[in-house]
Amino acid sequence: MITKEDRKVVVTGMGMISPIGNNVEQSWRNLLEEQSGIQRITLFDTEGFSCKIAGQVNDETYRTDLPYSRGTHFGLAASKEALEDGNVINDGDILDEMAVFLGNSGTRTGLDDFSGEFKARNLKELTLRNLNSDHQFDKSRYSAAAETIAKELKLYGGCYSITTACASGTQAIGMAYESIKAGENTVVLAGGCDAMITEIDLMGFCMLGAVTSEYNENPSKGSRPFNKDRSGFVLGEGAGMLILEEKKHALDRKAKIYAEIVGFGNAISGYSILDTPPNGENLAQAMEIALAEAGINKKQIGYINAHGTSTRDNDSSESAAVTRVFGEDTMNIPISSTKASTGHLISGAGAIEAIFSIMALKDQCLPPTLNLEDIDGKCSLLHIHKPLKRPIDYAMSNSLGFGGSNASVIFRRAENEL
Predict the structure, then answer these.
(1) How far is CA 92 from CA 97, 146, 179, 205, 257, in A?
(2) pTM (2 d.p.)
(3) At a CB cut-off of 8 Å and minimum separation 6, what does 129 contact?
(4) CB-based contacts of 231, cutoff 8 Å, min separation 6
(5) CB of 267 within 8 A of CB of 289?
(6) Alpha-carbon distance 239 to 19, whole Å?
(7) Residue 139 confidence (pLDDT)
(8) Which of 223, 263, 369, 376 is most exposed, with the fewest beta carbons within 10 Å of its own?
(9) Cα separation, 143 vs 86, whole angstroms
(10) pLDDT at 143
């Protein structure tokens, strides 16, 4: 009998829709080629908005014939790629037992559609029956994306929707990992999706002063994590989905294994809605929990994919957290923020960054942070300016969410590559 301590969790499939690519390989290649997905917003008229740029998904290769929200379509497309990549898309036995753990902030585009419908019709006409017939009610539910993915792909092992803002994707992966370790599930589809490039969301972030307004004429320079002149994050959209699987089950079906998940940590700060404590103590706590579960020496971490949003307080706080955890070894561990290339996908961020971390392990190549021109002294870390070929066995990916959620996950290079 396999005990909880014996159960190992591996990644056997991945899918992605991002501002720099319509699948994992394209996104990873463009990341290493230092491409930026930040551009002028074309989804709506930005007249009157202080910020006019975002990381948009350009080629709409996802299914548009179904009446789902934009974010749900991203999640569906990335999920299908992951199932195909994991060679389970037509395996009814595995699909029957596969659970869905999805990080999602709610279907904002569905709410926008609902608002437009409300304005266009007489109030008395907006009965629940009418809403259902037009799929507006279904599109605007917070759990809709996870339930839609489960329904469309016939995944019947359970459905969980995690909403902890920017930490959602990482927490979904971590919770799925824990469910397999505990013996509750054997195969899980986990990740995150979001599409917050909407008028109402951009308006809110502009009012908070959270997004940059200084690079509307030079979009690719807008997301600049750890720079002294950073002035706010840039919204992004898309999805990242992973198949997590109990290792023996994966080996028995001769699945390809990308990496093993060895640690997950979660902590709450309760410091501020937008910011983390200046000393980074709660993110540090999440990283320490993940490291303890992984059972490795801190020096074995070969790469950190930072949350690195390009906001002043977040970047300095995260830098303090990394220094707090790794101490004198801090300047030996390469770190980068891929948000400089993609923008901030909110609930989808941790999921695509987990995939980028896994690809770094697979290819032994670490992605850079774009726009590193004048690093803030409060962010003194071993930053990656250009793609870096380097042998590594362990990678860590961090996420911090609005409201105080902190999450960290650690991946180990696949055994057959060690």
Answers:
(1) 9, 19, 21, 43, 21
(2) 0.93
(3) none
(4) 212, 213, 214, 310, 312
(5) yes
(6) 10
(7) 61
(8) 376
(9) 25
(10) 84
Question: What mean pLDDT do residues 332-356 have?
Answer: 98
pLDDT at 83 over 70: yes
Q: Which of 71, 135, 393 is nearest to 260 (CA)?
A: 393
Segment 363-404, tens digit of pLDDT: 999 999 999 999 999 999 999 999 999 999 999 999 998 777
Tokens of 238: 């898309």
Residues of the chain above pLDDT 90, percent: 80
- Mind telling me the catalytic residues? 166, 307, 344
Identity of the residue numbered 83: L
Burial class (CB in 10 A: 0-12, 13-18, 19+), 326: buried
